[in-house]
Amino acid sequence: MAIGRGHLLDLESLSAEEITTILDTTRTFREVIDRDIKKVPTLRGITVVNLFFEPSTRTRISFELAEKRLSADTVNFSKATSSVQKGESLKDTIQNIEAMRTDMVVIRHSSPGAAHYLTQCCNSAVINAGDGSHAHPTQALLDIFTIREKYKRIKDLRVLIVGDIKHSRVARSNIWGLKKLGAQVAICGPSTLLPYEVEKMGVEVFTDIDEALEGVDIVNILRIQLERQDAGFFPTLREYTELYGINMERLKKLNAGFTILHPGPMNRGVEISDEVAEHSDAVILEQVTNGVAVRMSVLYLLMHKEPVSVSEGVEV
After folding, report:
1. CA-CA distance, 30 to 195, in Å (whole number)?
2. Can you give the pTM of this predicted structure?
3. Residue 40, CB half-sphere, CA atoms under 13 Å: how many?
4. Do 136 and 130 meet the contact criterion of CB atoms below 8 Å apart?
5. How far is CA 229 from CA 58, 163, 190, 266, 303, in A?
6. Residue pLDDT, tens place only, 256-296
7. What b/e readout covers 129-160, taking b as 16+ CB neighbours within 10 angstroms?
8. Which domains does the chain have, with CATH numbers?
């Protein structure tokens, strides 16, 4: 099955069946990365360019690891040492890179729509690793996969996303993916950090965190981007923590068997307390591990266009 017409740009344009295929294939690759020998020859001969115009740690390293474990040839682009510093356009950059006979491009860019634009000026398969505040599909997929691994389903689970929803590509992608698979999704944050008419996405909207947490199964806590404070979206970090920070006392409002997620990097003591970050029901490091398997799945499906099945000890 081809996903996203040969690209992965967002989850809004994917069907529930396509998302499920990615998650099922991820389970296979999670088994692969848990082996003693983690490398498979699946993408041998395929060249992938990691085109990161924004700083990244988890996403960039996760993609690089996924590519290497699939035996792809990997090229890493650095904006700081590229011709972009001399005024080269995004179109010229990608067309020059593609002229070297590359097959796939992973792009992170500050401009919403950058990944979609790339599909119009190159022939490579394009994977969106985050474009402005628009979408971050692989982060949402790893979040959803992590939830599904614990609960064995997504349908009817109650998920709350807390924090700066307005500027969050992670929130938007999670909402689209979770809703397509039947979850009940709510969001919570200061009114200044909620998108205009966000309820049209089919989510319940709260500004009171204590009300929002009642009866919830999963809480996905978004990083408060410290630069927002200077823009006046909330008075002080202390006030944000008091009104919206997730601490041990607030965990008591959740359903039994709850789960805490955070896409990282965490601002400990701001949106999440140390105790919650270290809680036994927090799966933050599990999300990071699952991110490699999710990205292996996406890379594989874009090249092979069908699910894969392996058993222990068998190479893909």
Report:
1. 35
2. 0.93
3. 25
4. yes
5. 24, 13, 12, 16, 43
6. 999 999 999 999 999 999 999 999 999 999 999 999 999 99
7. bbbbbbbbbbbbbbbbbbbbeeeeebeebbbb
8. 4-136+290-302 (3.40.50.1370), 137-287 (3.40.50.1370)
